[in-house]
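Chain A, query sequence.
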Amino acid sequence: MQLVFATNNLNKIKEVQALIPEHIKLLSLKDIGCFEDVPETQNTIEANAKQKAAYIKKHYGYNCFADDTGLEVEALQGKPGVYSARYAGEQRNAEDNNNKLLEALKNKQNRQAQFKTVIALELDNQQHTFTGICKGEITTSKYGEKGFGYDPIFKPHGHDITFAEMELNLKNSIGHRGKAINLLVNFLNS
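Chain A, predicted structure.
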């Protein structure tokens, strides 16, 4: 079986490739000749994932899945949420996003947050969704060099280190994307 993962984010592809069984060949957007920006114009994480998967299926004809992920911070009423990648502006710069979030929480006691990933699968003209959530808290400074996005400031519950300090296999086993991918894989194997 081959599936397109509708992303250009090489970090996401690396994370997901480590979780997908060998009998499933993962193709990137580049592999199918898709070099355009796939639309993400919806106002929820789930709707964005569905929109991206449906777009690839409609325009390229491949069975595929797409994800959308957001960081939801309690003290900010769920923001940045669906706008996580563009929180500090359209340049989508992780460093700027992290700095803006740390500044927004500077005087807040409640630093509880969760990462939420929704995967939308377009398979044989049917759409399925899978959701993974990882609860944790936002640190007061950045820690670690691994990972990407908000990983240097997100410490999952039950751990004393941020995602950016973790080895990939640990992050995948407890993280939001890993949880959603495991649901996807279990579905594909059933």
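Residues 45-60 form the longest helix (16 residues). The radius of gyration is 16 Å.
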